[in-house]
Design brief:
Distance between the termini: 55 Å
Order of helices and strands: HHEEEH
Structural class: alpha+beta
Radius of gyration: 20 Å
Number of helices: 3
Strand content: 15-25%
Largest sheet: 3 strands, antiparallel
Number of strands: 3
Helix content: 25-40%
Strand order of the largest sheet: 1-2-3
Oligomer: single chain
Shape: flat
Length: 118
């Protein structure tokens, strides 16, 4: 008696790739914003964050997703953390978390501190 496979073929949606080049309008806008902040002597995380948020939102839109600023990151048995943003789909499933840092921050130290929080 031959064995017949009764499993259904699951078709996954195609993976969307981000089309981002240095000449992309959002990338040019990001670097222009950074230059304007630099001319004003502004280098703090909040300024860099606002410029990058615009770029990140544009990238998320290309993928049919949305950047949600100040996204609550829930942890089991602990208070939620709030990250600077998350890229979410139509089901509010996070596909990436974003935490802004400026060039004066010690990135390795900051990452370790976040992980220590749980």
């Amino acid at each position: 008696m031959p064995c017949h496979d009764q499993t259904a073929l699951i078709k996954y949606p195609e993976v969307n790739l981000l089309a981002l080049k240095p000449t992309h309008k959002a990338v040019i806008g990001y670097y222009d914003a950074l230059r304007r902040f630099e001319k004003l002597g502004v280098k703090h995380e909040g300024a860099v964050r606002s410029a990058f948020q615009v770029l990140l939102d544009d990238c998320a839109r290309q993928l049919g997703r949305k950047l949600v600023p100040e996204y609550p990151y829930h942890r089991r048995g602990q208070k939620p953390l709030r990250v600077d943003g998350a890229i979410v789909d139509e089901f509010n499933l996070a596909h990436g978390l974003w935490e802004a840092k400026d060039t004066a921050d010690d990135l390795e130290k900051e990452v370790k501190a976040k992980f220590a929080l749980g």
